[in-house]
Amino acid sequence: MGLLIGFTTILLVIAAGAALAHVGVLDSRSQRTLGEIAFFVASPALMVVTISEVHLEAAAANLIASSVSLGACFWAYVAIARLRWRLDTGALLIGALSASYVNAGNLGIAIAAYVVGDITVVVPTLLVQMLLVQPVALVVLDRVTGRGDGVRAAVRRLVTNPLTVAALLGLVLAVTGWRLPAPVLLPLELLAGAAIPLMLMSYGAALRLSPPVGRAGHNGEVLLVTGLKMAVMPVVAWLVGVGLGLDGPVLLGVVITAALPTAQNIFLHATRYRVGEDVARETILITTLASLPTALLVAVLLG
């Protein structure tokens, strides 16, 4: 019953966003505004409040399982796509990120909160992606496309990303055991409460406003990415998690995190560097549509 209530809650808030877009209350610009408020204000507040309570010793196995599943799908795409389509490095990288880089910072937080009951299960994946995968990927894209601003700009994006800063602040609090004073903590908790509704309504509006898929001529690549992302990655995470002795809500959280859709910022990178845009856009839409049924299946099997 708890799983059903959790998914019903998520779906109703997503439906509210889609309905607002359908009747014209939300358009593409206002949908992005909702997402940006969540990204720059509400989600960082949620990260600080939540990560400060994480027990780091319990997160090590989660970190290993998440990293192995990410790496397995990343390199599987590189190997298969290079042999099958002879793609250049930029297109390979965007495709590999689409197959492995999950939407942990938005939809992942909501699903973890309402299905697993603990959003800290997405934190290890979030940190690996933000602090390692994304910076390295941007440096490579800078070099192979010549369209970026260099290593210095990639580092600047890392240290000014609000989720990264918030995650690091939360880690400092978790490691040291410090507690924020009430005049700071209470406003953060109030802002944190807005994060999940904003994310889900923005997500619902984006689904309603998205263009149709399958017309860009990259169906084979999109199919490969989708299969790796929605089928292989959760299975690898489950195998590694079981091997490390994870069970219960922690194992459920690891597998559901691996089953999350491709993160929207992969399309932003593809657009900025003008490489792999069609694959990133269509993969994000397809995996996003498939993510809730997949998460429900995982929750039924492991919950």
In short, what is this structure?
This protein has 303 residues and is mostly helical.
How is this structure best described in words?
The protein is mainly α and 303 residues long. Helices cover 80% and strands 0% of the residues. The chain contains 13 helices and no strands. The chain has helices at 2-22, 28-51, 56-85, 89-98, 107-116, 123-145, 151-160, 162-176, 182-209, 219-243, 248-258, 265-273, 277-302. It starts with a helix and ends with a helix. The model has no long low-confidence stretch (mean pLDDT 85).
Task: Please outline the helices and strands.
Layout: H1 2-22, H2 28-51, H3 56-85, H4 89-98, H5 107-116, H6 123-145, H7 151-160, H8 162-176, H9 182-209, H10 219-243, H11 248-258, H12 265-273, H13 277-302
Helix pairs in contact: 1-5, 1-9, 2-8, 2-9, 3-4, 3-10, 3-11, 4-6, 4-12, 5-11, 6-7, 10-11, 10-13, 11-13, 12-13
Characteristics:
80% helix; 303 residues; globular; mainly alpha
Supply Rg.
18 Å
The residue ranges in which pLDDT falls below 50 over 5 or more consecutive positions are none
Span of the ends, CA to CA: 11 Å
Tell me the total number of β-strands: 0
Number of helices: 13
Report strand %. under 5%
Order of helices and strands: HHHHHHHHHHHHH
